[in-house]
Design a protein that fits this description.
The protein has 204 residues and is α/β, with parallel strands linked by helices. Helices cover 53% and strands 11% of the residues. Strand 1, helix 2 and strand 2 form a beta-alpha-beta unit. Helix 1 packs parallel to helix 2 and helix 2 packs parallel to helix 3. The structure holds NADP nicotinamide-adenine-dinucleotide phosphate. The site of NADP nicotinamide-adenine-dinucleotide phosphate has 14 residues, from loops. NADP nicotinamide-adenine-dinucleotide phosphate binds next to loops. Pfam families: adh_short. Keywords: Lipid biosynthesis, Lipid metabolism, Oxidoreductase, Steroid biosynthesis.
Amino acid sequence: MYQAIEDNLKGMEIGILVNNVGMLVFFNPTRFLDMPNIDKAIMDTISCNMLSLVQMTRIVLPQMVERKKGLVINLSSEVGNRPFPMSIIYSSSKRFVDFFSRGLHAEYKSLGITVQCVMPLFVSTDMIHNLRTNIFVKSASDYARDALNTVGYTNRTSGCLSHALQSFALALLMPDPVFEFVLSLKTLEDVFEKLRQKDEKMKK
Ligand SMILES: NC(=O)c1ccc[n+]([C@@H]2O[C@H](COP(=O)([O-])OP(=O)(O)OC[C@H]3O[C@@H](n4cnc5c(N)ncnc54)[C@H](OP(=O)(O)O)[C@@H]3O)[C@@H](O)[C@H]2O)c1
């Protein structure tokens, strides 16, 4: 597939690459081995969230380097900031995006390339079942506009003020050890289990 993309992009001048593609296989919290069709879930998430980003960068970056100018925007997530039990395949893939982006920025900044990592919380799209927008959940168009306004100012961002404040509050109120402890509580496991059962009932 990537060879075909590379062939088709030959001769095109690409100044901005946005690696937006991403999938969250299970919206409800799911323990690693409880993921239905786990083999496919693993392969799909890795190909979609990680492999595509690296391959598209490999394909497009050389011409940017040649022109000494270019912008790469990679979509990570707030859940890439820390281990996120019950969604570890997704959150680990987003961690990868964050590390790859920061490393790439350091490697290519002096060659005129900006690599920005965008780490949203909730944005109302298909991925999160189009949750109603409010002060926490941004609409896709508002979020995209705000995030694009940060280009050139920061290479790692929550993308908008509301998400930056939420991210800050989460880090402040729930440092990693506290966060992991809370998520490991038996009562929370029960809540997750009830959510799962409700989801299964709705599917039937
Ligand atoms: N929405 C959020 O709350 C949120 C939060 C944090 C991070 N993010 C990240 O933001 C990015 C955009 O997500 P979104 O919310 O816009 O999700 P979305 O509405 O589900 O859209 C995802 C995009 O990825 C494409 N895609 C998904 N799986 C694919 C596959 N297997 N092969 C090819 N294309 C595929 C979709 O293509 P089609 O349109 O053809 O289906 C769509 O363009 C993702 O990287 C996501 O992880 C989103």
